[in-house]
UniProtKB/TrEMBL annotation, chain A:
Domain SERTA: 71-118
Matching PANTHER family: CELL DIVISION CYCLE ASSOCIATED PROTEIN 4/SERTA DOMAIN-CONTAINING PROTEIN 2 (PTHR16277), SERTA DOMAIN-CONTAINING PROTEIN (PTHR16277:SF16)
Pfam families the record matches: SERTA
Chain positions covered by the region annotation Disordered: 120-163
CC annotations in GO: nucleus
Biased composition (Low complexity): 132-143
The protein's name: SERTA domain-containing protein
Highest taxon, organism lineage: Eukaryota
TrEMBL record, chain B:
Name of the molecule in the record: Serine/threonine-protein phosphatase 2A 55 kDa regulatory subunit B
InterPro entries on file: PP2A_PR55, PP2A_PR55_CS, WD40/YVTN_repeat-like_dom_sf, WD40_repeat_dom_sf, WD40_rpt
Quaternary structure (record): PP2A consists of a common heterodimeric core enzyme, composed of a 36 kDa catalytic subunit (subunit C) and a 65 kDa constant regulatory subunit (PR65 or subunit A), that associates with a variety of regulatory subunits.
Amino acid composition bias (Basic and acidic residues), ranges on this chain: 1-12
Signal peptide: none
GO cellular component, one term: protein phosphatase type 2A complex
Keyword Transcription regulation recorded: no
Transmembrane segments: 50-69
Superkingdom in the source lineage: Eukaryota
Region (Disordered): 1-33
Cross-referenced PROSITE patterns: PR55_1 (PS01024)
Protein family: Belongs to the phosphatase 2A regulatory subunit B family.
Species for this entry: Esox lucius
Keyword list, A-Z: Membrane, Repeat, Transmembrane, Transmembrane helix, WD repeat
Length: 277, 505
């Protein structure tokens, strides 16, 4: 893991010590925000996300709004869509095995990729494990990263919140609800979840809504010392403004990590269903 | 003599089936009950849904092939059941069968040459329509079984009758299509309706005689091959030995004898012991056109496996594995999905394999396993749209592909009612559109262009305005001539080569 791979994490302001970081984030964010206003949505040259790997496909020519998102968010979205599709597959009388297998393989691939990245960036996390629950554990402790170009090490690229948000009341209820989601007929939550995971990427919104900090005061996040991370960070530029996405305040409590955990739990369930056939 | 009479009658029959088409969108006023005797009405359906509209288009030159629209066969009622799900020419090209989501099979017959109507030569008219599959319910699994026809395959013709296999997700049926223009009359022991007479009333000797009657096309079910597939049947293929055929579902391939319905042999089984380990399914399978021991099947991982049935009864070990190394520069979330092979076809020569995946068509040489011989981009402009196509499920569409008679041109479908042809020798390609609106009678069937940014020429269509609900999944090429059949949702288009027309006309 070279320095060029280091990613900035969005540490949601869940602790007082994080505020200093947040201030820095804020400053950088202003720049990107200004830039963002000038160039609107397409401010992010896709290369910023892609060059780090050098192997990802080009995204700049995509008119696809989803593809203007940073890589981790894209991945999160694909993951969410995968899960939704798998669930709708299961609801059919006789699901197409072909389709289910393709979706499950895509899920596995994304999961593998996330696990690798997680392991790379968190020494204390367990080694890669073959089963999903273990991967989940790894995921819980290891922040997600995305590649960043070597020439811009401090560029805000990826966002990730390492806090175990499930301990939060709101988040816990959210988690439970989400656990139920695959088995309930109500699909209303999935788009929210999707949006929720995007919502957190907009750091200024929670910086301005400082009362949100109170929510996190009780949470022991000492195990997630920001100094563990070589570069601390600022959030991604506002590709998705809060206004265009979900505005439920509770959703702001979701981090992409909690959403991810939930998704991976869902994946467990779905795989169980799949293999039972 | 009798042969001529028969021909005349058939032609008369053909004309009778032809409806006036002053307004192509209005259904025929009085659909003729097409000589359907009550006894066989269960199997012969009156042609109420299809009527014919005739277009002649000037040729568009594509290599040696110039096509004009010969037949446009729209369904007057637009319903999901009318969506055509398979198209297949028989071995001579005289007949063309289509299957639809409603479980119906419609057979078209090529009309014999007619001097008074110069353009009618080679026209395909409805020959017979029948209900092949009905919706069923599997009470054991509590599952509905769709009636949708997944595939039709013709058997090589061995006598006056034609035979075809049709399959839905679970059950394969063998159908006999035959003509009758005579019927026996004057039975001694049976009355007019076929009931036994009271024997005491039979006092004199009477020999039944064959009397001519209107030509009638009879379709009768001959065999039903059921209960052999746990998963969805995606392919059937008749062997070159003319005695056996195979049927493939997601995880298994079975070998059947055409005459035996109560047992089949499992020749491929990729079902893992633990279904948790399942990462690959069978997507298509086909027998070699000449070697009855060889067959190929494709997988959702983009690989092809050639198996030799002489090696072992269960072909778990392939003889050859055709696989292309993954290009890391094209890696994306959807690499897995778009590399899934949706169709595989042997060339007529048996030397090459044609496969279709989501974005490309590939030609493989049986003697080269490590990479395809040729790769053709069908709609590469969609590569940047994969996320949306994934979102709206189009990425799971299964496009089929076809060879021309001489294996020099390949054809496959795309979106927006476009279909693509690639000339393997000149490396030229063309995009054509199956559309009644854009193809005026006697006008040029223009090649279409999809523009991707940059300069946009007149009549170019931009990637953003492509209609992804209009997809051409099923196409077929006449076995010897340049006649193609294109299924565009619930319309069937038949295009013919103009040169071919002049040559024969």
């Amino acid at each position: 893991m070279g320095q060029r791979d280091i990613i900035s994490y969005e540490t949601s302001v869940r602790r007082k010590s994080g505020i200093r970081t947040a201030a820095k984030m804020c400053r950088l964010d202003v720049e990107s925000a200004v830039k963002g206003h000038e160039q609107h949505v397409n401010i992010i040259p896709s290369s910023r996300y892609m060059v780090g790997r050098g192997v990802k496909r080009k995204l700049s020519e995509c008119e696809d709004p989803t593809l203007d998102l940073p890589y981790p968010q894209q991945r999160q979205m694909v993951l969410d869509l995968c899960l939704n599709k798998l669930q709708s597959c299961q609801r059919r009388a006789e699901p197409s095995l072909h389709r289910s297998v393709l979706l499950a393989n895509t899920l596995r691939q994304i999961q593998r990729e996330m696990r690798q990245e997680g392991v790379l960036h968190s020494l204390e996390s367990p080694p890669p494990a073959p089963s999903l629950p273990q991967a989940l554990a790894a995921q819980r402790q290891s922040p997600e990263v995305a590649p960043t170009p070597s020439d811009r090490p401090d560029t805000p690229v990826a966002t990730f919140s390492p806090s175990p948000l499930c301990e939060d009341d709101n988040a816990v209820s959210g988690c439970i609800g989400l656990h139920k989601r695959p088995w309930s007929e109500d699909d209303g939550k999935s788009p929210d979840l999707l949006l929720g995971s995007f919502e957190i990427t907009n750091s200024t919104s929670y910086l301005t809504d400082l009362q949100l900090d109170d929510i996190f005061e009780d949470i022991d996040t000492s195990m997630y010392d920001p100094s563990d991370f070589s570069v601390l960070a600022c959030p991604s530029p506002r590709v998705n403004s809060g206004s265009s996405l979900g505005s439920d305040d509770n959703l702001k409590a979701f981090s992409s990590s909690s959403a991810l955990q939930v998704c991976l739990n869902d994946l467990d369930h779905i795989m169980e269903i799949l293999v039972r056939s | 003599n009798t042969g001529n009479e028969r021909q005349t009658e058939r032609r008369r029959g053909g004309n009778r089936r032809k409806y006036p088409s002053s307004s192509p969108l209005s259904p025929p006023s009085s659909p003729p009950y097409d000589r359907v005797p009550a006894a066989v009405r269960g199997w012969i359906f009156p042609v109420t849904r299809i009527y014919l509209h005739f277009f002649i288009l000037s040729p568009v030159h594509f290599s040696s092939i110039s096509l004009y629209l010969s037949r446009f066969l729209p369904r007057s009622i637009r319903s999901a059941a009318d969506i055509i799900s398979t198209v297949e020419f028989n071995h001579t090209g005289e007949l063309l069968a289509t299957g639809d989501k409603g479980g119906r099979v419609v057979i078209f017959q090529r009309e014999p040459e007619c001097k008074t109507e110069p353009f009618s030569q080679g026209e395909y008219n409805v020959y017979s329509t029948f209900q092949s599959h009905e919706p069923e319910f599997d009470y054991l699994k509590s599952l509905e079984i769709e009636e949708k026809i997944n595939k039709i395959r013709w058997l090589p013709q061995q006598n006056a009758a034609h035979f075809l296999l049709s399959t839905n997700d679970k059950t394969i049926k063998l159908w006999k299509v035959s003509e009758r223009d005579k019927r026996p009359e004057g039975y001694n022991l049976k009355d007019e309706e076929g009931r036994m007479k009271d024997l005491s009333t039979v006092t004199s000797l009477q020999v039944p005689v064959l009397k001519p009657m209107d030509l009638m096309v009879e379709v009768s079910p001959r065999r039903v091959f059921a209960n052999a597939h746990t998963y969805h049947v995606n392919s059937i293929s008749v062997n070159s030995d003319h005695e056996t055929y195979m049927s493939a579902d997601d995880l298994r391939i079975n070998l059947w004898h055409l005459g035996i319905t109560d047992r089949s042999f499992n020749i491929v089984d990729i079902k893992p012991v633990n279904m948790e380990d399942l990462t690959e399914v069978i997507t298509a399978a086909e027998f070699h056109p000449h070697h009855c021991n060889l067959f190929v099947y494709s997988s959702s991982k983009g690989t092809l496996r050639l198996c030799d049935m002489r090696e072992s009864a269960l072909c778990d070990k392939h003889s050859k594995l055709f696989e292309e190394p993954e290009d890391p520069s094209n890696r994306s979330f959807f690499s897995e999905i778009i590399s899934s092979v949706s169709d595989v076809k042997f060339s007529h020569s048996g030397r090459y394999l044609l496969t279709r995946d989501y974005l490309t068509a590939k030609v493989w040489d049986l003697n080269m396993e490590n990479k395809p011989l040729e790769i053709y981009q069908v709609h590469d402009y969609l590569r940047s749209k994969l996320c949306s196509l994934y979102e709206n499920d189009c990425i799971f569409d299964k496009f089929e592909c076809a060879w021309n008679g001489s294996d020099s041109v390949i054809m496959t479908g795309a979106y927006n009612n476009f279909f693509r042809m690639f000339d393997r020798n000149t490396k030229r390609d063309v995009t054509l559109e199956a559309s009644r609106e854009s193809s005026k009678p006697r006008a040029v069937l223009k090649p279409r262009r999809v523009c991707q940014g940059g300069k946009r020429r007149k009549d170019d269509i931009s990637v953003d305005s492509l209609d992804f609900t209009k997809k051409i999944l099923h196409t077929a090429w006449h076995p010897t001539e340049n006649i193609i059949a294109i299924a565009a949702t619930n319309n069937l288009y038949i295009f013919q080569d103009k040169l071919n027309q002049e040559m024969h006309g």
